[in-house]
Amino acid sequence: MSEASLAGSAILVVDDNAQNVELLLAYLDDLECELRVARDGQEALDMVRQSPPDLILLDIMMPVVSGYQVCERLKRDPSTSSIPIVMVTALNEVGDVERAVEAGADDFLTKPVQKLELVTRVRSLMRVRQLRSQLDATLAEMKRLRGE
């Protein structure tokens, strides 16, 4: 996937730790897409409602609304359920991964995040999202042509 194909896409980084946010933004800077930041789970939910991103990098351990709760809410809502969510956390027990998957996470990265791994997963999930959008548009057009 070329970097140019991410142009016009938006990634929401959600973390209450400024250093973690700074690192993720630096790693993603070369992707040439819009990078947004939410400092807690509630801010993330508000931002997604206002302008849904194409992908979310979501910390788990945050005050007030945890990453698990944010993920569950977004995946339950049909208008946001298709947004890929990557849980990014210092937690690394098998139970943490299971809980993230149960909450609806599409992928899971353990801190400290490696740049190559992050960028590769983001590109892959963004490509899947683009293909899904193209498929949905094609299916809608087929229905329209059949008069459904």
Order of helices and strands: EHEHEHEHEH
Distance between the termini: 34 Å
- Mean residue pLDDT: 91
Low-pLDDT runs of 5+ residues are none
**Helix-strand makeup class:** alpha/beta
Strand order of the largest sheet: 2-1-3-4-5
**Strand proportion:** 15-25%
Please compute the radius of gyration using only Cα atoms.
16 Å
Shape: globular
User: What's the helix count?
Assistant: 5
Question: Number of DSSP strands?
Answer: 5
- Indicate the percent of residues in helices: 40-55%
Largest sheet: 5 strands, parallel
Summarize the structure.
This protein has 148 residues and is α/β, with parallel strands linked by helices. 49% of the residues lie in helices and 16% in strands.
Descriptive report:
Helices cover about 50% and strands about 15% of the residues. It is an alpha/beta fold. Helix 2 packs parallel to helix 3 (about 65-75). The longest helix has about 30 residues, at about 115-145.
Distinctive features:
five-stranded parallel sheet
Secondary-structure map:
Elements: E1 10-14, H1 18-28, E2 34-38, H2 41-50, E3 55-59, H3 67-76, E4 85-89, H4 94-103, E5 107-110, H5 115-146
